Amino acid sequence: MRRWTWLIPLFLALIVHAPALRGDFVWDDAIVTTRQVFAFKTFGDVLFPPEHIPQWGQNYYRPVIVATYLLDQHLFGPNAKVGPHLTNLFLHVVVTLFVWLFALQSLRNLPHRRW
Fold first, then answer.
1. How far apart are CA 36 and CA 10, in angstroms?
2. Do 83 and 72 touch, CB atoms closer than 8 A?
3. By C-alpha distance, which of 87, 70, 3, 13 is closest to 36?
4. What is the Cα 54 distance to its own chain's centre?
5. Cα 80 from Cα 58, distance rounded (Å)
6. If we measure between CA atoms, which residue out of 74, 1, 62, 6 comes closest to residue 31?
7. Which end of the chain is less enclosed by CB atoms within 10 A, N or C?
8. What distance in Å separates the CA atoms of residue 88 and residue 47, rounded to the nearest whole number?
9. What is the dihedral sign for C-alpha 27, 71, 73, 75?
10. Using one digit for the tens of pLDDT, what is the confidence trace for 44-97?
11. Mean pLDDT, residues 25-33 taken together
12. What pTM was estimated for this model as a whole?
């Protein structure tokens, strides 16, 4: 098997999830991007959310998601539509790479492990 075969699952992940770039926000994304993200001023706020955030539940703790919203807002601006979807597409491709590497490592002693 050729050394470039690891690109196949990455390419497939890119093709399968590329239509999401034309998508719109769903569920609470619009609430988070228009009302809640502005309450987070520092990285410490991501880990320990400030009080009085609109529509923020007391048991609602999602620091990684909030950090990606802040990163998207910093990179693409507060009203970006494609940028956050591009970030998710990138994360999908990266996770696909790690799953591929995990599978290769887990199946390394089996015949036909690359397939």
1. 33
2. yes
3. 70
4. 23
5. 28
6. 62
7. C
8. 21
9. negative
10. 877 877 777 766 777 777 788 788 888 888 888 777 777 788 888 888 888 888
11. 71
12. 0.68
What is the structure's pLDDT at 78?
Answer: 73
Residue that the structure tokens 């015949």 belong to: 111
Cα–Cα distance, 78 to 36 (Å, whole number): 12
- Tell me: the pLDDT tens digits for 96-111? 889 888 888 887 777 7
Query: What pLDDT is attached to residue 113?
Result: 61
Q: Are 46 and 67 in contact (CB under 8 A)?
A: yes
Q: Which residues contact 67 (CB under 8 A, 6 or more apart)?
A: 43, 46
Give the number of residues written for the chain.
Answer: 115
Residues 6 or more apart whose CB falls under 8 angstroms from that of 1 comprise 114
- Element containing residue 61 per DSSP (H, E): none
Torsion of CA 71, 76, 79, 83, to 10 degrees: -90
